[in-house]
Write a structure and sequence with these properties.
Elements lengths: L1 H8 L24 H13 L15 H7 L2 H7 L8 E2 L15 E7 L5 E7 L5 E6 H4 L7 E5 L4 E2 L7 E7 L4 E8 L1
Antiparallel strand pairs: 1-2, 2-3, 3-8, 4-7, 5-6, 5-8
Helix pairs in contact: 2-3, 2-4
Amino acid sequence: MNNLDANDLMRHVSRPGHYNDPDLLQVGNIGLTYIEQVSHFSLWCLITGPLLISTDLDQLSNKSLKILTNAELIAINQDVGGRQGVRVSPVRPNGPPGTSEGLEIWAKPLANGSLAVVLLNRSPRTSDMKATWAELGLPVGQAMAARDIFNHKDFPTPMDDQLVVKAVPSHGTVSVKLTPM
């Protein structure tokens, strides 16, 4: 998380063809839960970080390999627009239960007009999360098709003023692609 925060502070120097390097991927290494590995990879893809693997490939589990080969997340990382995803919500350290502390919204405009969004739950508890169109810089009332990028599933109905996700696990993320309708 320190590398993620440092990378976001350097957002002003990132541009197409010039990318910040938040360091090697830790997916597959000891110390991260499966949920944390998914979060780590999802965020590195969104911030357009180099996807350099630091794990011993002989020790890589099938679950970790599935994370590292998620084509939809890799497509977000490799988007031809070359923009870095950034935090669009204020930085708030973990707070008491019932607050929005530790819940963050990250977003990356894509070349095709879509927006990749990662909802990050840094808090120690499962939390419902939402991102309004105003927070995401989208026109209020704009109908958007939503797709869960990691799980390769479309949301059942379009959204027109906010993205709401139930039960984002502690240290977890939900990665969504919003596409204008």
